[in-house]
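Hi all, long-time lurker, first post. I run a small reading group and we've been trying to get comfortable going from sequence to structure in the token notation. Rather than ask abstract questions, I figured I'd post a concrete chain and ask someone more experienced to write out its structure so we can walk through it together at our next meeting. Sequence below, copied exactly:
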Amino acid sequence: MKQALVLLLFIMTLQLTAQNRFIKITNPTKKKVLVLKENKNIRIKTKSGVRISGKLRIVDLETISVNGVRIKLQEIAKIKRNPLGLTIVTTGLLVYGGALTFSVGMIAYVLVQEPQGLWAIPIAATAIYTGLKHPNFLRGFKASRNWHYKIVMH
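-- Answer (accepted) --
Happy to help. Here is the structure in token form:
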């Protein structure tokens, strides 16, 4: 019983002394604040045009790391959330829907001899290509639209 109590106190002490690190995204004109915690999936576009997606790691008060690439806060042009569940669902639906559209169109063309079934080819190709590009329909926060980024460590 004593060992369990000591272990519980040790875990509680670790929780109290652990640092909470996150990016605070604010827009003073809209008076909105958003928090992106460390280890969350994000997408970043830098001012030089490079796009990086992966887990957010905070290096220091001016630098973050995404997939091993260090990025200064001043270099970020746009940042957005990129949840894994949403990526899986949208990718799966678009690829599966494209394959289903292609199959139904080809069956209609072969069995019924309807040339309208050929319209399924470009529609299906577009859906499959879009699904493979991992779409993210979530809102992005651009520095050019007065969003400010700040790293906070507690």
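A couple of things your group might point at:
Strands lie at 21-27, 32-37, 41-46, 51-58, 63-66, 69-72, 76-81, 140-142, 148-153.
The mean pLDDT is 86.
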